[in-house]
Amino acid sequence: MPDLLSALRTHPGLRRPKNEDAVGGVGTPWGGVFVVADGMGGHRTGEVASRLAVEAILEVLSQKEPSPKALLEAFEEANRRIYQEAQRPENRGMGTTATCLLLDLPYALIAHVGDSRAYLFRKGVLKQLTEDHSWVAERVRQGLLTVEEARTHRWRNVITNALGSFPEARVDLLGLKVEPGDIFLLCTDGLYGVLEDRTLQEVLRNYPPEEAAERLVALANEWGGPDNISVAVVRVPETLPERTPPYALPLEAAGGEPVHLKLGEVPEELPTQVLEPKPRPRVGWRDVLLILLWVVVVAYILLGYFRGP
């Protein structure tokens, strides 16, 4: 896909001794796969967890036809590898966020765990696609914290979902049909936790992916660089193929806006917005007898009550 432009950058920031983030991407005949991950669990274990996640996801998806099921299988494999490593005493507490963009043009699938993010810049407007799996983000969704309060809350770094924390992964999956010139931004909290959305939007509006990625990292460091910073900027071509994917895509009927699906199990395919009507329950002869018996019992009780002794 020669017209697909992308740029990957990662930087330790100015206050961390080591970079526990990881970022990766690979072009494919159908588009490409891009991943950012933010490791946790200490200097060594966080670095290992994020690297394992990116390697596993890229490895699985580069060997499979693109589909929602393949994307979830990639996250399951990453979770398995990290969880296995985390069973060693020296690696206890190991885990990582992971946000992956799978482009199967003209469609995009995104899988997400943790508080790294995926954004879509379309027609001059930046929109956050993923929902953070964090303590403060859940309180914001519940209306208990404002966005401004969440930015400075002492528990803003508490993650509620991560790859490697449990034997089975809990993954958010969403999909949408892309438009010519769409730009996707994947990033860790070292970027969006420092720069406001309007700053991200202006950089993506005014610079191509390579320069945009460089400027975003530089701006985060200018504002203190308190955390590791990882960025993937991907711009889709102006000319897109016209085709229907062989899998069901979770698309909203009006406008093609992404629909979030929280999945605990891997389905054969994802539901679309066209829902089949549920069949009416069949009433058998046993059900009829039970209903008649209930009516007789109630009638007998009422008759005795009104007749008196």
UniProtKB/TrEMBL annotation:
List, alphabetically, the InterPro entries matched.
PP2C, PPM-type-like_dom_sf, PPM-type_phosphatase-like_dom
Looking at the Swiss-Prot or TrEMBL record, what is one Pfam family this protein matches?
A: PP2C_2
PROSITE patterns reported for this sequence: PPM_2
Transmembrane helix: present as a keyword of the record?
yes
The Swiss-Prot or TrEMBL record annotates one GO molecular function as: protein serine/threonine phosphatase activity
The record's annotation in CDD domains points to: PP2Cc
Residue spans crossing the bilayer: 288-306
Which keywords, in A-to-Z order, does the entry hold?
A: Membrane, Transmembrane, Transmembrane helix
Start and end of every PPM-type phosphatase domain? 5-236
Q: Establish whether keyword Membrane is in the entry.
A: yes
Q: Known PANTHER family for this protein? A: PROTEIN PHOSPHATASE (PTHR47992)
Q: NCBIfam families from the entry?
A: Stp1_PP2C_phos (NF033484)
Q: Tell me the protein's name.
A: Serine/threonine protein phosphatase
What is the phylogenetic placement of the source species in the record?
A: Bacteria, Thermotogati, Deinococcota, Deinococci, Thermales
